[in-house]
Amino acid sequence: MNAPSPNPTGCRDAPLLKERGQREVFCGLTAIVWLHRKMPDAFFLVVGSRTCAHLLQSAAGVMIFAQPRFGTAILEETDLAGMADAQVELDREVERLLSRRPDIRRLFLVGSCPSEVIKLDLEKAAERLSGKHGPHVNVVNFSGSGIETTFTEGEDACLAAMVPDLPGTEARQLVVAGALPDVVEDQMLGLLEGLGIGPVAVLPTASADNPVAVGPNTVFALTQPFLGDTHAALIRRGARHISAPFPFGEEGTTAWLRAIAHEFDVSEERFREVTDAPRDRARRAIAQAGAPLNGKSAFFFPDSQLEIPLARFLTRECGMTALEVGQPYVHRDVVGPDMDLLPAGPVLSEGQDVDKQLDRARAARADLTVCGLGLANPLEAEGLTTKWAIELVFSPIHFYEQAGDLAGLFARPIRRRALLKVAVE
What we know:
Rossmann fold; 17 helices; 14 strands
């Protein structure tokens, strides 16, 4: 099978406008909202302030009778002032938590802005608590602080923190890294099984009793473009990355699957047998749902780190023109294949100076501006049509069966603007 060839007019070697100013993003604690659903035997204990607790409560509210799998060990004024031994208090809180919740097998100590500001060493705390409560409970530390990161990096930090403790293996296998909604993960595994690819392991796993193993014969594919640290951690364990565009839309999904199929010597005949029908459904769904996008322009603020793959999808599959594509970090080893396919022309920016980018967005006046919640309403008030970037993280958008829904998420604001214009007239 032939591997996908790069587009010679792509953007991989295009210059980056690097900005280092004020940013407008959520913090990495937000990732707990979707991670805790993927690991039912895990608990995420944020070591932070009441603000951290309020964020999780508002963003990840659960039913009154549910037993949540996340919480906050609140740093009080005495902790912040160094008047109390925060490590001793943390040990006490963990002891209380585990005594009440014997079902917990993985405990994540999640750093926050306050815990990092006072230099609370949660890595040492995790080692100490793992020694005390293991092997029944494995305690791992990662940072969800928003001081230097964007919100999707919470998942990246979590998965990267798990990799060093994964068992080793010499077996030839595929590891797929990235948290997906269960229904999307099942579709992905069904496609890989149909291609005859296996064994396949997914990181993160649902159970601590069935961990992913990694070794020199492991190859891995990413489903999320923000997993730069996880990518590096798996490579350090000897695994090899299958570089591919991300599975957004028909083209991205096909290229992602084709790269894996090429690695496992799947014949072209079998590849077409498995993918032709869902590819056709995806193309028809995109054509219908994405009709309002054809001929329109888009401007991306840096937010979720999905920006480059999504810009590739919108330009190549929905007929849009990208004016600027901003991304918090541009990891070419991860998003390079999408940059190869992204048509040349847009400004590519890394990082953010929000005031300068606002000026460029106002001057560009794109038909659709993809940005964070904090910018959307002010820009709408100025007459720009906006799309909340965070909705793209919380919605099922990967692989063939979600391709039409992905196009629809972008088309909806444009339809809404057109209806409002008719109503005013």
